Amino acid sequence: MSSTDQLQRFIFDDADVRGVLVGLDDSYQQTLAKHDYPAPVRRLLGEMLAAVALLSATLKFEGRLSLQARGDGVVSLLMSECTRQHHLRGIARIEGVVNSDTLLELLGHGQLVITIEPDQGKRYQGVVPLDQPDLARCLEQYFAHSEQLATRIMLCANDQHAAGMLLQALPGNDQAQRFAENWNRISHLGATLSDQELLELDNETLLVRLFHEETVRLYPSNELAFKCDCSKERCLRALRTLSDAELDEMLDEQGFIAMDCQFCNSGYQIDRVEIEQLRRGVTDMGSDSVH
After folding, report:
1. Rounded to two decimals, what is the model's pTM?
2. Which residues lie below 8 Å from residue 190, measured CB to CB, with a gap of 6+?
3. Which residue ranges of the chain lie beneath pLDDT 50?
């Protein structure tokens, strides 16, 4: 299959086109293990994880990138995140019975939001409607309209694995006619890739099979892993947005404030002492979890 839990960039030296391949195995399974999703939702979340990993490879930043699909269907939310350290996590929210398996049927009318949160600098968001037949086409529409970059994306997932490939024009090409010919040829070849090939072939075999007449240069791969960065400190930062009255009301119910991470199901308990420290502006209060 595509090299497991790895992200690998490649470039067509003579065509001003770059690419990325992603294969997910353990990272995908660890995400699914935290929740009991129906099969169609598992597969769609696998595509979301592959997609956010692909997109992270096109950007240079320290921080995190997230994809969030919201709609009025039985699946109200699909979300995936990838950090600069190639840590992945994802979640789905289901409000009803799942009896379909396509993006539009599951999410209904809604939008896809791409968010870049650098550790330093301003947060950026791009929005595209969920009006295409699948996630890959929605993302291609985003790049065409918001970034003006010709892009081809292939995504797939089954019960065990998820994978994706991205082909994209290099920014700043100034030879329009020559580039158009190269792009049309390479994107057409990429579109012939089957789900089976993407899921089962290793990266080098896949690229040779698709682009045997092209000059393709592979870069070293990066490992991908499931990792949730939830912590008690992050919970306390969230509680800073509440008023004293709201905090007191929550404490009075059971003597502490319980908070759960929706991504990994880890639980945190914030007691009165920690809330008092929060009120006094104490910032270093530990990050221990209950798991």
Report:
1. 0.84
2. 19, 152, 154, 165, 167, 210
3. 1, 283-291
